[in-house]
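Hey all, quick one. A colleague (J.T.) asked me to put the magnesium ion job into the tracker so the inputs and the structure tokens live in one place instead of scattered across chat threads. No bug as far as I know, just bookkeeping. Sequence used:
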Amino acid sequence: MIRMSNIVKKYVMGDEEIYALDHVSFRVKPGEFVAITGPSGSGKSTLMNIIGCLDIAQEGEYFLNGQPVESYDQRQLARIRNQNIGFIFQGYNLLPKLNALENVELPLVYQNIRAGERRRRAMEALEQVGLKGRIRHRPQEMSGGQQQRCAIARALAQHPSLILADEPTGNLDQKTGQEILTLFSHLHAQGNTVILITHDTSVAARAQRQIHIEDGKIDEKEGNG
Ligand SMILES: Nc1ncnc2c1ncn2[C@@H]1O[C@H](COP(=O)(O)OP(=O)(O)O)[C@@H](O)[C@H]1O
Ligand SMILES: [Mg+2]
């Protein structure tokens, strides 16, 4: 699924070079539930951008589903992203004027999937996250937990090979956050590959495996999930 070897991303600030990622290597197999954890400034967002094909590394190799990502141009990267990756963000990133169903369907419009199939997939995904009773609600008419469920449905409806979540419980209270993490565990049990990025060690412990990053370098430890 994912194979990274010696990935380097550095930023030049004046005459100083900051290694945001310093020769990072790891693998994720299909169907795994992995947490990437580390303190603020450790390189998590930089790594997520590279995993998600939003950015490319300066050195090293990244294979996503056997495809060498660093050889692609911006247009090809956009296509790889749409076909492979379901993004989930801390702030949900739903469009405020669209209802839940329309938000979930929108990425499928860009994929040129016909209307009937779009509707079928969106309804299926909304049912999977327990939002079937809220399909006509706009984001501001839903709780934070419901908005995050809607964002997860939007990711699922694309049938991604990888679900990539950046601090998905960061804006939620403890109990709602736990419900969202339980949903990720269910999605994992159904065969989805999930990568969860978080600074919160109790959130990370819900994954099968943890990859810890600090000062742009990684080390691995086992989780209890
Ligand atoms: N655009 C940028 N320009 C310069 N330095 C950056 C940039 N983005 C990130 N960094 C630096 O790279 C390091 C890793 O940042 P980041 O990946 O955002 O960490 P995290 O998400 O774990 O908080 C930090 O030292 C940060 O200051
Ligand atoms: Mg970050």
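Adding what we noticed when we looked at it: Helices lie at 44-51, 74-84, 100-110, 115-128, 144-157, 174-189, 201-204. The chain has a mean pLDDT of 94.
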